[in-house]
Amino acid sequence: PPGVHVLDISWFTDSMREGKPVAVETRHLIQDAFEVLAENYEFNEMDGSCLAFRRAASVLKSLPMAVRSLRETQDLPCLGEHTKAVMEEVLRCGRSFEVEKLLSDERYQTFKLFTSVFGVGPKTADKWYRGGLRSFSEVLADRSIHLNQMQQIGFLHYGDISGVVSKAEARSLRNIIDEAARATTPAAKVALTGGFCREKEFGHDVDFIVTTPELGGEETLLPKIIDELKKQGMLLYCDYHPSTFDINKLPSPKFEAMDHYAKCFLILRLEGSRVEGGLHIAEGDNRGWRAVRVDLVSPPVDRYAFALLGWSGSRQFERDLRRFARAKRGMLLDNHALYDKNKNEFLAASTEKDIFAHLGLEYIEPWQRNA
Ligand code: ATP
Ligand code: MN
Ligand code: MN
């Protein structure tokens, strides 16, 4: 009360409090093991199992204390037979043999390598793997392979894009996007979203929501920003998707479906920056700039709160929030709207707080949504 907290696990932690202190390490071992297994299911396009392990990892992450025995995890939600078996093995032996086998498995290693390229998903990785390819040089030397533009750019900037983006770089990019937006549309509003709005130290890209105070003004906003970035010589790659948003549509219960706002997936040239921990395969090292992935999405201003809540993440948090809305409240939530099935009406919101209130949930800040 006044609402139920989505991640409320106090019932569990209370029952754990009697125990003696232990190494925190074990939980990380289990989480890492779950992550490897989830990744492998993703490579094999077994979405259900993948999600089960991601969810289990997320549950462990939310626990304020370490896990010591299987008995302690009995009442935890989202843990199935397989996840429990892995956990038990790690608790007993300090390692999971299934995971170790995977880590040294040629197929897993190759998929991990290939899917680390921008524009290469499990399907392409599978095609290349079945074609006998095992390394980047083999892929690049194979004349029968046609790389699409995204993959070409992915290989070209592999070293930069596979490196992490820092908070400082996210800040510089914020200023750049801010200026590009306001140079063309003075009233434009830019908000940092994604991992960096959850106070993460590093990210794989930087996400922004851009909109205008006037409804409809957002329609030309992205193309204008893209033009401006191009004029400044910053645009290395742009994959622009115009809006397909339909105000009459009910929110989609499927989380994995992309939202319908105009958006673009960019690679920008960021001056005065260097990649840390990246591998350079195509370019020299002392360039004084780096390539970085940036996502821009531009919802109409009256959908701003839904877009912000949807893009703030984490993905697991978003999934759980939608599931909670549907299962516990009879409401449909997505990046565009909230629909109350009991009253058969859309619920308007101008802030994230409004949406939490509609759902009867206590508001939590983005940094508390790192599920
Ligand atoms: P990272 O540091 O890895 O970038 P992140 O949380 O920012 O972490 P992203 O993949 O950038 O992860 O996604 C940010 C948010 O944007 C997620 O919550 C996701 O739901 C949303 N999102 C990403 N791509 C799309 C898309 N195409 N359509 C709708 N929502 C998307
Ligand atoms: Mn991101
Ligand atoms: Mn993103």
Number of domains: 4
CATH topology of the largest domain: Beta Polymerase, domain 2
Gap between N and C termini: 22 Å
Low-confidence stretches: 1-23
Q: What portion of residues belong to β-strands? A: 5-15%
Helix content: 40-55%
CATH superfamily of the largest domain: Beta Polymerase, domain 2
Structural class: alpha+beta
Please tally the β strands and state the result: 10
Overall form: globular
Query: Any idea of the CATH class of the largest domain?
Result: Alpha Beta
Cofactors, ions, other ligands: adenosine-5'-triphosphate, manganese (II) ion
Family: Belongs to the DNA polymerase type-X family.
Cofactor: Mg(2+)
Keywords: Magnesium, Metal-binding, Nucleotidyltransferase, Nucleus, Transferase
Function: Gap-filling polymerase involved in repair of DNA double-strand breaks by non-homologous end joining (NHEJ).
Any key phrases for this structure?
371 residues, alpha+beta, DNA polymerase, domain 1, Beta Polymerase, domain 2, 4 domains, 3-stranded antiparallel sheet, 10 strands, 43% helix, disordered N terminus, binds adenosine-5'-triphosphate, binds manganese (II) ion, EC 2.7.7.7, magnesium, nucleus
